Structures are given as C-alpha cells and as structure tokens.
C-alpha cells in the first residue's frame, strides 16, 4: 500500500513538471495605483537630490532699518548691525529690503546695495538723530546693533518709487522719511545638502 502511494505521488509530481501552471496565475498582480505612487515618489526623490546638490541657499544678516529722505531728494536706508556683523559686510554687497506696512506677497522686496559701513559704534543720541523713536532705539541697543550700514536702493525710474522691486513695480507712491524697514544682506551661499551632510555639500562667501 505504501509503495502504491509513493508511486502515485511521484506520478503527480512528474505530471506537474510536464504541465507547469501559468506564470500569471502564480504571480500576484501589481496594483496600478501602487505603481503610479512608486514612480511619482521616485521622481520627487530624484528632483530633491538634484536640488540638494545643484541648488543655492543664501544666508546672511537680517536686521532692522529706517528710510531717510535727504535734503537733496536722495532716499537712503540706514540699517543697524552689531560690530561683529559689521566686520563681515562690504560695500557693494547686495541687500533686500522689506518696507513695514507693504505686504511682501504683493510688492516683493526692494533690491539694494550696501554703500558703506560706519567704522564706529554709535551712541544712543546719535541713533535717535536717525530714528527719532526712543522705543525703536532701545530695541536696537538691547540687540547691540549700534553700527550703521548705509544702503541705497537700486534705481528703476519707470517704477513710481524709482526703485527696483523683486515681484512688481512696487507701490504707486514714494516713501516718506522715517519709514521702518527690515533688511537682509546675503553673505554666504551653500548647496542645500550642506545643511544635512556638510561633507557632501559646499559653502562659500558671496563676493560684492
């Protein structure tokens, strides 16, 4: 009886080898949605990797400023930085200025250049002569931002302000003196991957 069973099993195995099942019956069918998600994810990962090595991220100094209208009609922006920050800023470096009360989403930023950096620390009285706002000056002093950086907007006569903006023609009026502003002065440029894997990326100072 045992020999009969063994012969039967051997015969079934031989029959199976001679008539193999269809491959599509053995493999689990791949969900088309899963395949789509896979390729979308792969493309996003590729874009992220390329951007990580080829993209540019600018970093630098962000500070406060005030706009001043001079007697000759020339408009100048005075930013305030710490002595350590001042030592890193050079003339002709680019700057971006956000005007208080003007939404960046609508107007963008004012394109500007550094004219000069004051070579001394200002007293409270000297800062009040520029800002005329005791609370504002007290805030700057608490941050040790006592060195003046003179900045000039890039001219563009076709715009109402006479300046170049990053996103539009800017507002349809000229700015008055004493307007508070925020200033960003880029000093370094890095590849994005540098912030995750410094040994794979690179960073260097921006030249004026």
Mean pLDDT: 83
> Shape from CA axes?
elongated
The share of residues in helices is: 25-40%
Total helix count?
Answer: 7
Give the oligomeric state of the chains in this entry, treating copies of one chain as homo and distinct chains as hetero.
single chain
Fourth-level CATH superfamily of the largest domain = Efflux pump adaptor protein, beta barrel domain
The first-to-last residue Cα distance is 97 Å
- Backbone structural class: alpha+beta
Q: Flag low-confidence runs.
A: none
Question: Would you kindly provide a brief summary of this structure?
Answer:
With 208 residues, this protein is of the alpha+beta class. It contains 7 helices and 7 strands.
Sequence-ordered SSE layout with sheet pairings:
Elements: H1 2-18, H2 23-26, H3 32-54, E1 57-69, E2 75-81, H4 83-86, E3 94-99, H5 104-107, E4 110-117, H6 124-131, H7 134-142, E5 147-153, E6 180-190, E7 203-205
Antiparallel strand pairs: 1-2, 1-6, 2-5, 3-4, 3-6, 4-5, 6-7
Offer a few descriptive terms:
single chain, Elongation Factor Tu (Ef-tu), domain 3, elongated, 2 domains, 208 residues, six-stranded antiparallel β-barrel, alpha+beta
Walkthrough of the structure:
It is a single chain. With 208 residues, the chain is an alpha+beta fold. The protein folds into two domains: 2-54, no CATH class; 57-190, Beta Barrel (Elongation Factor Tu (Ef-tu), domain 3). 33% of the residues lie in helices and 26% in strands. The chain contains seven helices and seven strands, in the order αααββαβαβααβββ. The protein has helices at 2-18, 23-26, 32-54, 83-86, 104-107, 124-131, 134-142, and strands at residues 57-69, 75-81, 94-99, 110-117, 147-153, 180-190, 203-205. The chain has a six-stranded antiparallel barrel with strand order 1-2-5-4-3-6. Strand 1 (57-69) and strand 2 form a beta hairpin. Helix 6 crosses helix 7. The mean pLDDT is 83.
């Amino acid at each position: 009886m045992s020999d009969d069973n063994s012969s039967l099993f051997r015969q079934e195995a031989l029959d199976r080898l001679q008539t193999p099942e269809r491959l599509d019956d053995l493999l689990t069918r791949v969900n088309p949605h899963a395949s789509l998600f896979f390729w979308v994810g792969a493309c996003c990962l590729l874009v992220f990797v390329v951007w990580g090595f080829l993209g540019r991220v600018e970093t630098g100094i962000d500070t406060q400023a005030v706009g001043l209208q001079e007697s000759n009609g020339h408009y100048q922006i005075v930013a305030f930085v710490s002595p350590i920050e001042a030592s890193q800023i050079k003339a002709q470096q680019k700057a971006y200025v956000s005007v208080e009360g003007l939404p960046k989403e609508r107007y963008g930023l004012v394109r500007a250049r550094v004219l000069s950096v004051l070579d001394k620390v200002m007293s409270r009285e000297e800062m009040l002569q520029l800002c005329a706002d005791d609370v504002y000056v007290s805030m700057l002093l608490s941050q040790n931002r006592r060195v003046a950086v003179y900045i000039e907007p890039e001219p563009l006569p076709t715009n109402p302000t006479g300046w170049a903006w990053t996103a539009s023609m800017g507002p349809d009026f000229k700015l008055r003196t004493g307007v508070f502003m925020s200033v960003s002065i880029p000093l370094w440029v890095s590849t994005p991957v540098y912030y995750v894997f410094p040994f794979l990326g690179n960073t260097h100072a921006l030249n004026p």
